[in-house]
Design brief:
The complex is a heterodimer of chains A (951) and B (81).
Chain A: E1 19-24, E2 27-32, H1 37-43, E3 69-70, E4 89-91, H2 95-110, H3 126-133, E5 159-161, H4 171-180, E6 185-188, E7 195-198, H5 214-218, E8 224-226, H6 227-232, E9 237-242, E10 251-257, E11 260-266, H7 279-283, E12 298-299, E13 308-309, H8 312-330, E14 335-339, H9 345-359, E15 364-366, H10 373-382, E16 400-404, H11 408-411, H12 413-424, E17 428-432, E18 441-442, E19 445-446, E20 449-451, H13 458-471, H14 477-483, H15 486-497, H16 503-510, H17 514-526, E21 530-534, H18 536-539, H19 544-557, E22 567-570, H20 577-582, E23 589-590, E24 594-595, H21 599-609, H22 621-629, E25 635-639, H23 643-646, H24 650-658, E26 662-667, E27 679-682, E28 691-694, E29 699-703, H25 715-725, H26 735-745, H27 754-760, E30 762-764, E31 808-813, E32 838-841, H28 843-848, E33 856-860, E34 865-872, E35 880-884, H29 892-895, E36 912-918, H30 924-941, E37 944-945
Chain B: H1 3-17, H2 23-37, H3 40-52, H4 61-69, H5 71-74
The complex binds iron/sulfur cluster (SF4) (3 copies) and FE2/S2 (inorganic) cluster.
Chain lengths: 951, 81
């Protein structure tokens, strides 16, 4: 039981608009129809004893502790399963009820160890509370058969299951089924013999369990308990913060003893997650205090020199002097910065401000370049705003869900669980993905259509879907006439109506049978509320931006936009991708997506910042690399990103980094990029600072400082020191002041402040005079750009094509337990689930090459070669192989190429022509990498400490 | 910067706008895209290439026409800082 669950009302709240009035213990109370008596009593301030009920779960009615008396009814109904009725009269306490409850408790306790004093749940156990509540004083059957000797299952690295303490209330089973949707737990046997078991394996680790922790949160006793609590005791205080991993942006309560984090539990009030979390946010936070953290600034002349530990002042002044030297020698435009989607809005804002105001250039970019920049471009062109249109709750009103190039159960697990809830209620699912992702066929969920297309043919597919909608008269004409730009629609209609876009004509390109495409288009257009969710499988292509526009076209043509249950929903990869883009991290845009050439906006910022700003777009990340290699780009400030691992064509990237004269890296760890750095500035984890993140639904949530920064400064303070050293004054006293400035200068943020966030918990932008409570659904009355604009989306085949030398297509992605470059998750016990990156390939391709499961295989493209272990899997289609990039040594990005999206330079990670063959040893690149790594580790280990440095 | 890569990128932009039935709009689209998203040194290099390249160069016809027609828009706006 988490600290925040102590006010649990027993059964879920109901949304009915019809109120029902009743009397409980003489008190009048009115609640929505469908509410349980147990919940109504809690509303009236009456706490009925209970064990098997929890507000997060539908009532089950097994413990019978919650019995009550209802006037005019015989017997003692369970209040958790009894619904309120008009004029009902309920009594919650009587001698008869007390006797019954004591009897129940006596049976429970007779099979429960009485070691409360040494139990990990002591002081926070519902069984203990209930024993006290009903005044249990004796247990008559204590010597009977019991389960006290059963062994605990400690296989999961984060929680343990102690069957001796299990009361078989089945809360965990229901949490796993109803909230998480994994159905990993079952109740075995019946009656006394009944036990909880993890299905599909000998123990939890070996089972289908994905370690989300929902069962642990649901358990009323110490049967399922976090190991951190078992080892360190109950937490004493809770601070609400936001997960620093994926773009779902779960609200979490950090539960602490002093400054020591004991556990993270999902916040039931969290707008994005509604009380759920996944293995990363809930458990994988140990990296924050990992021994690899570097907590002192360091500098060196060349990357072959040992590091020298210095004080903050020396490091900052050295960095500033270097940037000034470079600008003096090579021109102002020879330097730039990279902001991070893992840092807060305030930090990102400051880095772009430093770049524009102190460096005087627009050479600032963000890692969104390599993931969702096409979303920014495509949605701005069509809808007028570079953001998703809905909140996550919206999915609960969708009737047809089209998931394109996204793998929510791995990449966005809490949203994935939400989606599965809706699908179990009957919504229909269409999946467009080259792989058979889990959603296609998972317990109680099965896609109606799986469009298993060839990588790189998204646009041909979306045009075929559009063709069917137009040719079969499925356009929502009234919506289009009222809401969209007529001329662009007429042009688009004529374009997609051309027979070359028909499913029959495109089947040869996409590999998807025409009938399947037609079925999917009809279902999406006519099945009720149609919602599209997409991920990097859409954006990371040479036509990423075209595909985003194609998706927006589909939504507009079918009227599936502008109300709950529909929309265009990009699932953002990292926690603050949306925010980093909002904050003006792109080289062509000031905060709020306003182009740098827009005079009015520029003048606004010029007068606020007191400097003249450039009206020219700056370099994007890949352009920075190219300019570095040709000698016109010399200095780079990177905050919280690991471009040497995450960006494509590693050898190209590292050559560019090596050519820099000054690389400043601000990070928690000496990451792959920092191995090429001249100045290292220690970063602060999300637990060590205040700020905000903005998730995929435009929801701005607070992160709150729960411990002091290990290196003494939060990241925003470091950027501020660097700006001051560069001669541009910044004097913020707290991140809230930075947010105030953002709000002042950005119309969609005018109503945002820390005070409002504290008051409302979170806010979805636009939040301003017109929308003081924020905006869950966008484009309701009209599109942000006025009329929705249809864009033409010709399919242009990527140049990454298979040929005799490279006959397979590689597509890359991520898995549940690891996060991005893995800098955080590799430093947690999550490695038990994914200790290395592996290459998945279809049995046919494996057989052709004599490859068996677990063999070492060489993966080769025109960019480079690496070696991984093979996993043979029918999730793949023949001709397509897949890997992840969570481990630096596996070198997935040594193989990916610099081919990129035409509009944004977002790399084409999802399509690389490759060959795979059995090998015996690591690739040449891996050998060099290992050597370089050893060398850099030695330079770090031998860092020189200057005794005079004030650290 | 590697001119081959810039040409490739410019031709990719051109390929997108090929779908536009009105050629003048397509040319304007290409030029507008480069003006809004390409850093000045990239634009300068592609214009320099346009000037020195012979007939039959590596630029697609649409991109070549767009650069010729809109070259004033594509020149660096302010002075080099
Ligand atoms: S941790 Fe999550 S997936 Fe695993 S058994 Fe518990 S609820 Fe199910
Ligand atoms: S493990 Fe906990 S939640 Fe599950 S049945 Fe046992 S006591 Fe209930
Ligand atoms: S990683 Fe994503 S889904 Fe998991 S807890 Fe964090 S925000 Fe939620
Ligand atoms: S709480 Fe109602 S039966 Fe258990």
């Amino acid at each position: 039981m988490s600290l925040s669950c102590q006010h649990d009302r027993g059964t879920p709240a109901r949304l009915s608009t019809r109120q029902v009035s009743l009397r409980i213990d003489g008190l009048s109370v009115s609640v929505p129809a469908g509410t349980s008596v147990l919940h109504a009593a809690a509303v009236a301030g009456i706490d009925i004893p209970r064990l098997c009920a929890s507000e997060a779960l539908e009532a089950f009615g097994s413990c019978r502790l919650c019995v009550v008396e209802v006037k005019g009814r015989r017997g003692f109904p369970a209040s958790c399963t009894t619904l309120v009725e008009e004029d009902m009269e309920v009594t919650t306490e009587s001698d008869a009820l007390l006797r019954l409850r004591r009897g129940v408790m006596e049976l429970y306790i007779s099979d429960h160890p009485l070691d409360c004093l040494t139990c990990s749940a002591n002081g926070n156990c519902e069984l203990q509370d209930m024993a006290g509540r009903v005044g249990l004083r004796e247990v008559r059957y204590a010597d009977g058969a019991n389960h006290l000797k059963e062994e605990a299952d400690v296989s999961n690295p984060y929680f343990a299951y102690d069957p001796a303490k299990c009361i078989v209330c089945s809360r965990c089973v229901r949490a796993c089924a109803d909230i998480q949707g994994t159905f990993a737990l079952t109740t075995t046997e019946r009656g006394f013999a009944s036990r909880i078991a993890a299905a599909g394996g000998a123990d939890f680790l070996d089972s289908e369990c994905v370690s989300c922790g929902a069962c642990v949160a649901a358990c009323p006793t110490a049967a399922l308990m976090e190991k951190s609590v078992i080892q360190q005791g109950q937490p004493q205080r809770g601070v609400t913060t936001t997960c620093a991993y994926c773009g779902v942006g779960c609200s979490l309560n950090a539960e602490l003893q002093g400054e020591k984090l004991i556990r993270m539990v999902p916040d039931p009030k969290g707008g994005a997650n509604r009380g759920h979390a996944c293995v990363k946010g809930r458990f994988a936070w140990g990296y924050a205090t990992h021994a690899d953290r570097i907590t002192t600034p360091m500098i060196r002349q060349s990357i072959r020199d040992p590091w020298r530990v210095v004080g903050w002042e020396e490091a900052i002044h050295h960095a500033a002097a270097e940037f000034k030297r470079l600008q003096g020698r090579y021109g102002a435009e020879s330097v730039g910065s990279i902001t991070s989607s893992r840092c807060s809005n305030e930090e990102t804002y400051l880095v772009q401000k430093l770049t524009r105001a102190a460096f005087g250039v627009n050479n600032v970019d963000t890692c969104a370049r390599v993931c969702h920049s096409p979303t920014g471009y495509g949605l701005k062109q069509t809808l007028g705003e570079s953001a998703g249109t809905q909140d996550f709750d919206s999915v609960m009103q969708a009737d047809v869900v089209l998931v394109i190039g996204a793998n929510p159960t791995d990449g966005h697990p809490v949203f994935g669980s939400r989606l599965k809830q809706r699908l179990r209620q009957g919504a229909k699912l269409i999946v467009a993905d080259p792989r058979t992702i889990d959603l296609v066929d998972t317990p109680h969920v099965r896609a109606v259509h799986h469009l298993k297309l060839r990588p790189g043919t998204n646009v041909a597919l979306v045009n075929a879907l559009a063709h069917v909608i137009v040719a079969e008269g499925l356009v929502d004409e009234a919506f289009v006439a009222a809401r969209c730009d007529g001329a662009s629609f007429a042009k688009w209609r004529a374009f997609v109506a051309d027979p070359r876009h028909s499913p029959e004509a495109t089947a040869a390109v996409t590999g998807v049978p025409a009938a399947t495409v037609r079925g999917a288009a009809r279902l999406y257009a006519t099945g009720g509320n149609g919602a599209i969710y997409y991920g990097l499988g859409v954006t990371e292509h040479s036509q990423g931006s075209t595909m985003v526009m194609g998706i927006a076209n589909l939504a507009m043509a079918t009227g599936n936009i502008g109300r709950p249950g529909v929309g265009v929903n990009p699932l953002r990869g990292q926690n603050n991708v949306q925010g980093s883009c909002d904050m003006g991290s792109f080289p062509h845009e000031l905060p709020g997506y306003r182009h740098v050439s827009d005079d009015a906006t520029r003048h606004l910022f010029e007068s606020a910042w007191g400097v003249k700003l450039s009206d020219e777009p700056g370099l994007r990340i890949p352009n920075m690399f190219d300019a570095a290699l040709s000698g016109s780009f010399k200095g780079l400030y990177v905050q919280g990103e690991d471009i040497a691992q995450s960006d494509p064509n590693t050898q190209h990237v590292t050559a560019a980094l090596e050519s820099l004269e000054c690389l400043v890296v601000q990070d928690l760890f000496l990451n792959e990029t920092a191995k090429f750095a001249h100045v290292f500035l220690p970063g602060a984890s999300f637990l060590e600072k205040d700020g905000t993140f903005t998730n995929a639904e435009r929801r701005i949530s607070r992160i709150r400082k729960v411990m002091r920064p290990l290196a003494g400064h939060a990241d925003w303070e470091v950027t501020q020191m660097l700006a001051n050293a560069l001669g541009y004054p910044m004097n913020y006293g707290h991140p809230s002041e930075i947010m105030d400035e953002i709000a002042r200068l950005t119309p969609s943020f005018h109503g945002v402040s820390y005070a409002r966030l504290d008051e409302l918990g979170s806010l979805q932008w636009p939040c301003n005079e017109a929308h003081p409570q924020g905006t869950p659904t966008m484009h309701v009355e009209e599109f942000v750009r006025g009329k929705g604009r249809f864009m033409l989306t010709e399919y242009v085949a990527t140049e990454e094509r298979v040929n005799r030398r490279f006959p397979l297509l590689l597509t890359t992605g991520r898995i549940l337990s690891q996060y991005n470059v893995g800098a955080q998750t590799r430093r947690t016990a999550n490695t038990v689930w994914h200790p290395e990156d592996i290459l998945e390939l279809h049995p046919l391709d494996a057989e052709d090459r004599g490859i068996r499961d677990g063999d070492w295989v060489g993966l080769q493209s025109r960019a480079g070669e690496t070696v991984l272990r093979a996993l043979i899997s029918t999730r793949m289609q023949p001709g397509v192989v897949y890997t992840t990039f969570h481990w630096p040594g596996s070198g997935a990005n040594v193989v990916t190429t610099e081919n990129s999206d035409w509009a944004t330079n977002c790399p084409e990670y999802k399509v690389t022509a490759v060959q795979v063959s059995r090998v015996e040893e690591p690739s040449e690149w891996q050998r060099r990498f290992a050597r370089f790594n050893r060398e850099q580790q030695t330079l770090l280990d031998n860092r020189q400490r200057d005794d005079h440095a004030t650290v | 910067m590697d001119i081959a890569r810039l040409i490739h990128m410019a031709n990719q932009v051109g390929a997108y706008f090929e779908a536009e039935p009105e050629r003048s709009a397509a040319r304007a689209g290409v030029a507008d895209h480069l003006a809004r998203f390409w850093e000045p040194r990239m634009r300068a290099l592609i214009l320099a290439y346009l000037d020195q390249a012979e007939e039959g160069d590596a630029l697609s016809p649409l991109v070549r026409e767009a650069l010729l027609e809109h070259r004033a828009r594509l020149a660096r706006r302010g002075a080099v800082p």
